[in-house]
Each structure stands twice: as structure tokens, then as C-alpha cells.
Amino acid sequence: MADDPYKALGLARTATQDEIKKAYRKIAKTDHPDLNPDPAAHERFKAASSAYDLLKDPEQRARFDKGEIDAQGQERPQRHYYREYAEQGDNPYRQSHGFEDFSDVFSDLFGQRAQARRGGGARSFDMRGPDQRFTLEIDFMTAARGGSTRITMPDGSVLEVKIPEGAHDGQVIRLRGKGGMGMGEGEPGDALLTLIVADDPDWRRDGDDVETTLPITIDEAVLGGKVEAQTIDGPVMLTVPRGANSGQKLRLKGRGIKGSGGKRGDQHVVLKIVMPPHVDDELAEFMRGWRENHAYDPRRGK
Q1: Residue 157 to residues 151, 152, 249, Cα–Cα distance (Å)
Q2: Cβ contacts of residue 62 below 8 Å, gap of 6+?
Q3: 155 pLDDT band (50/70/90 cuts)?
Q4: Domain that includes residue 244, residue range
Q5: Domain co-membership, 215 together with 277
Q6: Between helices 17-31 and 39-55, what is the axis angle to 10°?
Q7: Are 111 and 75 in contact (CB under 8 A)?
Q8: For the segment 207-228, what is each residue's pLDDT rounded down to a tens digit?
Q9: What's the burial of 288, exposed, middle or buried (CB within 10 Å: 0-12/13-18/19+)?
Q10: Within-domain flag for 110
């Protein structure tokens, strides 16, 4: 990952959260390995994914801007320089304490648990491996229903990843022990997958609620009736009221996304009156006769 996540996304530090998300999506659509085999594109995508993972969280972004964490999201260690110690009157490094004292220095520099051990005169340090961050794009239905998908790690290994029901855009899945190798006898780090839910032309999500559009015929709008509508769980029969209008919303309670508390949201079905592909003479003649006695102006203010 680049040292400057803003540069990896082609943005200034003043960019809004929405601009950060749009910039990442733009890069993902052009440089994702599944879409662009160019190695350079793959590197740009990796850098953009890491940058987005860091900056999408406003709190984490603020800590980076303040210099509290680095571009990998790791705590910045407190830096101590020899000159600083040399100028102090009680500087312990003025005296020779032997190599064992360097274990404390390493512990301070790495900001993690570093254990020094003696083994045949050699010294080693046990430290947990770094976490590795990736981005995984999934379709709307996989996010809504849950499921599994296979991913290929940088080392060539293939992992089965379980997607929880109701997964949302930006959610992070942790794969324990699948990150970078540790030092010495340190455990490996974790792989962190940030989910990106792809846009779906037929479904729109608002929190735990979803919205779809249902085309209906002229006669269904006038007379009402039972019409099949798609839901996350499959098709159901929906009652269209008599005299329905385009844009009118019907609610299917509990047919939305499963929330964190286990309760599902609702599905809102937007009706859309669609004309027949061809207006024949019979329909035209009927409408002319109807208009003579029942004309109305929907554009006039109520």
C-alpha cells in the first residue's frame, strides 16, 4: 500500500466520505483482477483497496490524519533517537549494559510483544504477523441471503469465505490466521476482507429495508388484482388495489434485510403502469369513447 492513501485513490485530504467511496468504486470497476489482467492494474487495485479500508471509517481516518496510525492502520511507535538519549543526564545508554538491553528497544520500536530468548547463543524475537487487508465484491442477493464464495490468496491458496445473511457494504470479515507470517514463533496475522456490495438494477437498499419496482398493466391498475412480485425469499402474490397509480408504494412487512438484531426490514414495492407494446384500434376506440364522458386533467393542481 502507498504511504499516502489519498494519493492511491486520486483524492485530496479534503475529500468527503462520499467522494472516497465513489473514487474506490471507480478504480474497482476498471482495475479489479477479474476485469483487468494487467499486473499494474492489480497493484493499483490493491493500493486503492487498502486505502479505502483505512479511510472509509471517519474515526480511523481522523487518527491517520493526526499521525496516530500509519497507512496500514498500525499504531505509530513512539520514536526514540540516540541523540535524544545522549543529551539526557541520566542516559542509561552511556554505559555498557550488554546486548540484553536491546530487547527493550525492540519492544518499544515494534509497539508489540517482543520476546527475547537465548538459544545456543543466538537470539530471536517472537512477534505476531501483520494483518492483511483485501476487498471482496459480492452481488446483492449473496449479501441479502448470505452464502459462500471462494477467494484466491496472494500465496495461491484458495479459501472458502462465508458471507453472513444481511451483509452490508463496508462490512469487514476476519479470517483468523490467514494474514502475514509471524516472526520467530509468533502466530500469523489475520486477513481482513472488506465487502463491497455491487449495485443491482432491480433492488435498492435503505438500511434494512429494500425497494423494488413492479410493472403492471393498464387493466391491473384500473381493476386491481393479484400479481406476482419478487422478494429476497422468492416470488409471492401481491394484491394491487383498484385504481393503482405509477409510483404508488405497497409494503411487504418483514421481507427486507435481516438486521443485526435478527429482525428483518420491509420491502417496498413501487408500482409502474406499463402500456401494451401496441395500441390496437379496439383499445384506441374504447379510450376515445371513455374520454368524451370522463375526461380529467392529472396535471391540474389538487
Answers
A1: 8, 6, 48
A2: none
A3: confident
A4: 204-294
A5: yes
A6: 160
A7: yes
A8: 999 999 999 999 999 999 999 9
A9: exposed
A10: no
Quick one: the chain helix, strand, coil %, rounded to 5?
30, 30, 40
Helix (H, G, I), strand (E, B) or coil at 89: coil
Beta bridge partners of residue 197, listed in sequence order: 138
From CA 43, how far away is CA 125, in angstroms rounded? Answer: 31
Instruction: Report how far residue 128's alpha carbon sits from residue 110's, in angstroms, rounded to the nearest whole number.
Output: 11
Q: Same structural domain for residues 263 and 276?
A: yes
Tell me: do 263 and 211 sit in the same domain.
Answer: yes
Q: Does any domain span residue 194? A: yes
What is the per-residue pLDDT for 66? 83
pLDDT tens digits for range 2-60: 678 999 999 999 999 989 988 988 888 888 776 777 888 888 888 888 888 889 888 88
Is 140 within a domain?
Answer: yes
pLDDT at residue number 68 = 80
CA distance 32 to 28: 5
Domain endpoint, select from 170, 199, 228: 199
Hey, what's the cell of 112? 508489540
Average pLDDT, the chain: 83
In the block, residue with C-alpha cell 483505512: 54
Give the β-pairing of 122-126 and 191-197: unpaired
CATH of the domain at 138: 2.60.260.20
Dihedral angle at the C-alpha atoms of 197, 147, 165, 214, nearest 10 degrees? 60
- How many structural domains does the chain have? 2
Residue whose cell numbers read 427486507: 256
> CB-based burial of residue 99 (10 Å sphere; 0-12 exposed, 13-18 middle, 19+ buried)?
exposed
> Which one of 150, 171, 199 terminates a domain?
199
